[in-house]
Amino acid sequence: MDEQTTLAGRVALVTGGSRGIGRGIAEALGRAGAAVAVNYRHREDEAAAAVAAIDEAGGRAIAVCADVSVAAEVQALTEQVVSELGPVDVLVNNAGIATIRGVDDITEADFDQTLSVNLKSAFLCTQAVLPGMRERGWGRIVNISSIAARGAGGIGVHYNASKSGLEGLTRGYAARLAPDGITVNAIAPGLVDTEMAAPLKESGVADRIPVGRIGRPDEIGQAVLMVIGNAYLTGQTVAVNGGGSFV
Prior knowledge:
single chain; 247 residues; alpha/beta; Rossmann fold; 7-stranded parallel β-sheet; 7 strands
């Protein structure tokens, strides 16, 4: 599969695409030929840097500010992307938060916010792009899960619940949207070298990963391209964790 032409003429939206794993995915999609909408919530400068990197590599991108856990903002985001780039063909639900909390420290507010940002946002964004994908008979949705969906993880039970829910959402949509030419899959990264993972990285967990290191954002981007490129793959969660888990 030629990465340079795979997504030529397609439009991709990456939520939380301004940094970390999201940026790695956005840049991979840009290299593959897609026009990329980089969604962000707070860090405008980092979103601009991601757009510049895609542009400098010969791609096309825009930055769009929106809180994707809020329905009205998702609607406005989608309308802006359609207006500036065209209908969304590829949706990557990457936006998420990882607030570390112990069992005795987690609050109801922590739980609600995590479920809203990590899970509800994927539902809202998927619902927003579905009509256009159905109309064109083609669509690719990729949800960014985590090894915490099927293991203990190091963030907290609220994070476990949000990522497990995301994988359930993936399977539910996949079963219902396959006849429309839309595939829905999840990528479950292990520890990746990002700002969000810094507290875990410093704990020495990398020493227990079989490949001997933590992952890179661009490697998650490669995995996203892999599932997008396979029209027969849907409803699956692909673990990308350096051999740290085989579940």
